[in-house]
Each structure stands twice: as C-alpha cells, then as structure tokens.
C-alpha cells in the first residue's frame, strides 16, 4: 500500500485506509511536521474542513500501532476553543492518519520570526493575549488528566483575529517507538526533569509554556547552545538572561515562575490561570469580539 503522501490526487483510489477515504476527501498537501506529512481534507458527510496528519509506522509492531491509535482516540475527548480538536485516527501497516481541526492562518513561530526580522518588539497586551489562550488550551489537557508534550511556537496555531489554538500533542507511543531524531523534536523546550531522565508530567508542559512566553518577549529562546550537551547543562541549571525591563514586573514574575528548575515548585495550570494578571487579560479576551473561536467545525465555504 502506498502512503497518503505518495499520490494525494488519487488518494480515494488507494487500497489502504478505506474507512478514511469513505469519510474524507483529501484536498491538498499542506506541509511536513516532526513525525509526518499534513494534508487538508473535507468531511464527506457534513462538509467540515479538517487536517489529516500521516505518520509512517512501518517499523512499529502491531501492539505499538494499537497503543498509538488508542492514545489518539483518548485525545478526541479534549474540546476547548483554544485547542485544536482531534477527531479520529486510522491506521494500517504502513501509516497512521490522525484527523484534526483545520486552522487556516499561521503559527506563533512564524510571527516571532517576522517580528525579529523587522526589529519590532511584541506589545505586552498581545503577548498576554497569546499566552492566556495557550494557557486555556493547555488547561483542557491537564483537566482531562493528559500531558501535552508538544508545546512550542510552531505548534501554536494563529488564526484570524489573533485567535491562538494549541496544536497536536506529542503521542507517547510514536515517540517511544520512533528514531532519536523524533525523540527530541524541540529540545529547547524540554524541561530539566526530561533531560535528566526523571519521571515527568504536567510540570514539563508548564516549563515549555514558560519557554514560549519568554520567546514572545525576547524573540529568542531562554536557553541557546551550540550542542545538545551544552543545552542540557544550561537547562538543568536554569540560568537565562532576564526579559527586557520594558515589560511589567507581573509578566517577568510569570516567566520566572514557569521556568523554575524544580518541577514541584512550578505553578500548575490552575495557579497560572488564577493569578490576578492572567485573570485580567482573560476577561479582556472574553470581551473582545475577535476572541470567538475560529470556524473549525462548519467551514464549508473555501
């Protein structure tokens, strides 16, 4: 069986993933992520536009494929206006396809790069707007007992009206069974406990969120290094340059609390959302007309 990415234009005629092709019409290739290719598609039943991520799984055993599919199905219960929904999963011997919400627009990494190239610093209210939405998206995972494991600017989708949605989570079974390259898709956002091989959970997501917040303020990651070994050392020491004094002390304090080396001393997502400054910007966000979620479910005119 050829994979989905081999011949998109004749995808419906392929022998594999018959259930997928009976439900979705593959439209076009969007791009490539850490673990696979992404395509836009349309649900044949209701016209909904979706994104389908295809991951090569030929090297996985049947048990590993089943475990990955089960983990993805568990994600379908995560529903939040600031998190890209996962709808379904299809798997055969060659590839696994994850069906997710389609978010037209860009991502935070691209916006950060554009701002850095133009020499423009992001305004603090916009920093808060993006950060607060990321927090609420992450809360949907943590409240559901799920660790996200894939928080980074390139996985924070930005739609029209500056709506931000937390993208696809890291799938534990795929990472565990894949190559070392896939094991560290974004090492600059990994928490100290991950580098040290210790058990990790929600607090590792909070650390990654702190790295993203720092990057929004500085247009650079808090820990830069010329090698993986140097990066590990810097992250585990937790020493980084302070953010610009042009930002308020409230913002600086949030950054420093999230980037605390000891995971037990980091705030959890409830504590972050309960802080007065985050509550203030949450209320502003909810009152804005353009804070409405993008049309993920019934976007039929494209």
TrEMBL record:
Signal peptide: none annotated. PROSITE patterns: PROTEIN_KINASE_DOM. One of its GO terms (molecular function) is ATP binding. Its EC number is 2.7.11.1. Pfam families: Pkinase. It is an enzyme of class 2 (transferase). It catalyses: L-seryl-[protein] + ATP = O-phospho-L-seryl-[protein] + ADP + H(+); L-threonyl-[protein] + ATP = O-phospho-L-threonyl-[protein] + ADP + H(+). Keywords: ATP-binding, Kinase, Nucleotide-binding, Serine/threonine-protein kinase, Transferase. Residues 24-278 form the Protein kinase domain. PANTHER family: CAMK FAMILY PROTEIN KINASE, SERINE_THREONINE PROTEIN KINASE. This is non-specific serine/threonine protein kinase.
């Amino acid at each position: 069986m050829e994979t989905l990415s081999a011949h998109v234009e004749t995808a419906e005629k392929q022998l594999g993933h018959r259930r997928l092709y009976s439900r979705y019409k593959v439209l076009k290739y969007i791009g490539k992520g850490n673990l696979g290719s992404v395509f836009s598609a349309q649900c044949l039943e209701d016209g909904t536009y979706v994104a389908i991520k295809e991951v090569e799984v030929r090297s996985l055993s049947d048990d590993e494929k089943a475990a990955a599919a089960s983990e993805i199905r568990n994600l379908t219960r995560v529903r939040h206006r600031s998190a890209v929904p996962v709808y379904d999963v299809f798997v055969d011997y060659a590839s696994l396809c994850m069906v997710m919400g389609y978010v037209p627009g860009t991502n935070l990494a691209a916006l950060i790069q554009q701002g850095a190239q133009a020499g423009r610093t992001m305004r603090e209210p916009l920093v808060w707007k993006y950060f607060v939405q990321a927090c609420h998206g992450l809360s949907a995972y943590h409240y559901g007992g799920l660790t996200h494991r894939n928080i980074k600017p390139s996985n924070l989708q930005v739609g029209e009206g500056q709506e931000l949605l937390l993208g696809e989570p890291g799938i534990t079974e795929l990472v565990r069974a894949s190559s070392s390259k896939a094991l560290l898709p974004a090492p600059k956002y990994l928490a100290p406990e991950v580098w040290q091989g210790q058990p990790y959970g929600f607090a590792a997501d909070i650390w990654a969120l702190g790295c993203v917040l720092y990057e929004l303020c500085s247009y650079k990651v808090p820990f830069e290094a010329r090698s993986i070994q140097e990066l590990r050392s810097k992250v585990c020491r937790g020493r980084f340059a302070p953010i610009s004094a042009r930002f308020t002390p409230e913002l600086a304090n949030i950054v420093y609390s999230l980037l605390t080396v000891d995971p037990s001393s980091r705030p959890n997502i409830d504590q972050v959302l309960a802080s007065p400054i985050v509550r203030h910007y949450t209320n502003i966000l909810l009152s804005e007309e353009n804070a409405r979620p993008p049309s993920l479910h019934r976007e039929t005119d494209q």
